[in-house]
User: Fold this.
Amino acid sequence: MNPIITRSLTKKFGNFIATNAITFEVLPGEIFGFLGANGAGKTTAMRMLCGLLKPSSGEAFVAGYNVYTQTEKVKKSIGYMSQRFSLYEDLTVKENIRFYGGIYGLSNQQIKDKTAQLLQKLGIEKEAGQLVGALPLGWKQKLSFSVAILHDPAIVFLDEPTGGVDPVTRRQFWDMIYEAANSGVTVFVTTHYMDEAEYCNRVSIMVDGKIEALDTPVALKSHYQADTMNDVFLQLARGK
Amino acid sequence: MHQFLVFVRKEFYHIFRDKRTLLILFGMPVVQIILFGFAITNEIREAKIAVLDQSHDYYSRRLTDKLVASGYLITDQYLQSNNQVETAFKAGEIKMVVVIPAKFGEDFFHQKKVTVQLLADAGDPNTATTLLNYATAIISSYQQELELQNNLPLTINTTVRMRYNPALKSVFLFVPGVMTLILLLVSAMMTSITITREKELGTMEILLVSPLPPAMIIIGKVMPYILLAFVNAVIILSMGVGIFGMPIKGSILLLLLECVLFVLTSLSLGILISTVTNTQQTAMMASMMGLLMPTVLLSGFIFPVESMPEPLQVLSNVMPAKWFIIILKDIMLKGAGLRDIWLQTGILAGMTLFFLGISIRNFKIRLN
Assistant:
């Protein structure tokens, strides 16, 4: 079973249809780019998949669990990192790791092992006792991602994870995403940067609540006879 | 359970690393109690008065001595003539002038009637009224004294006893008031701020995506404040008792339980505020304007409910603080038991459930 399956997934707020019968599947270990202009319905769709919003109609399965009835199991199987920075600035690096490990139900021993691994991997053993607020933004972002996959989720949702980060750090951040994907984690990522869309295995583009295109970046570019993903996006978003 | 403890520990980190929070939590109660207890008080001690004694007989001198012996008044000046009255007031030190007419003793015993004039500086009406009341009381007790000596018939003697607070100490009103205010502040304002802070920073979303049940998130966030508010209650009580000699005539256990109840009421208000606001700033304004101000003005803490206009009296009934102040005073001063204050306790408990109910409903609407 694929890690994310939706069939005619719809969310209405009163008369407004935020997400209009979207159907797609995400393959295991894939980096799936979820693109769309602001207000196209990306966030609503993502919130339904994370168990934060109840869909109005349609079906959705995340990590094999039904998002209507098994939200608890869904939540245990996913990691989440939002566009807004998700660590506590007034807690130290170590305390943040311990907190997130703790609320995902890891034991103290597991947390200890994971913390050591993580600090070593990011090369910030020395900064472990520092308040997160004192770290440079790039480090925070990487730490944030590492914390989101601390509990080894099957899927990790990244909501515009690289907003406001310099190009070098963005590149390093994507290296981390690749590494996670290689180790089997499915990555579901929304972004505004079209160059990042090129890094994804497959990309979907939402316009006005519907998925207008879904394919590999290469296939999309040839289909729309565009040089870059940016051109593809503009063609679709400007509306035919 | 482990999840919950991890959460509460994180909350304590937030509290103990934020100097402003700490200041509000522990600095404010102490400062307020001291301020209200020592500085801001309705009592008047050693107010300066002047005496214009036109009689200069034994009885007028004894009256003057009596006024001073009360401890509330000090004779600062002895005036010689009426013209000096104006000058004395204008100098500003003198708050009241007592004018004793000529032939004071003689008229008292022979005419059976004598008029003592009290002139007060009503620039500050409260002080003036209080001083007049003191002076009148002293003079009438002096009158009774003289009459008894001479066995004059047909006088009505009133004996006044101020029960539950014989010395009329205003501290007895302020300690329960300040305690109510602080508990409300810590529980309602601080929790609404701490919850909206997570919303503002975006961490609330992360928490909601985590396997923590939403109820556990809220309980985890308010738990430290329950503890701290309770610690505060104990600090204020011990200061009230230790420094100001406030009695606790009723059961201490009952008193503490009622404190816990009021903390819960305030917390439910704080949670309610946090469900309708999205930023710390609005949460703070909502708590200040919506809770603290009406509480100070309408709970009977500073202005007696009985002297408010009818509509405000009705409105004061929806202030949880009003009921809690009654409970506190009844237990501490009158030694009331649960049987005497079950109504107020029931009202507070009802309010708590009501606020929690609305909060849960709001929260569910938000999630959908």
